[in-house]
Structures are given as structure tokens and as C-alpha cells.
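note to self — DONT lose this again. spent like an hour looking for the file last time. sequence + predicted structure for the chain T wanted, 70 res
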Amino acid sequence: MAEVKVYYDKVGNTLTVWFGDRHQEYICEETGDEVILMKNKAGIVIGFEKLNYSFQEASNVKFSFETLTT
């Protein structure tokens, strides 16, 4: 089963999502929309980071994911 890891840094106001092995990160690319893509050596996106992301304190935060096949 694939694993997705989500990290929220409330001090730095960043949301980081990994859907690949973060240790395989080779290069980062900024999209211009305050989103940074983390890629492996093959150029495949293995995660992203959203800058200036914040949400109000909540006891339960829910995330949904949808997968698409091409």
C-alpha cells in the first residue's frame, strides 16, 4: 500500500506532503504559486511543499486523497 506523509509547520507556515521516499529528493522546483515540487533523480515528483499555508487551530484535521489512473 502506498503511504502519504503530511507535515504541517505552524511556525514556518508550510504544509509538506510526501508520496514518495523523501530521502530520494534530488532537486526542487518552484512553481511560482508558492508551491515547491520535490523530485527524484528521474525527475518524478515525490512531494510538494505549500508555502505560507495556515489554518486555524482545530482538534481534528481531515485530508482526502483521490487517485486517478491514466
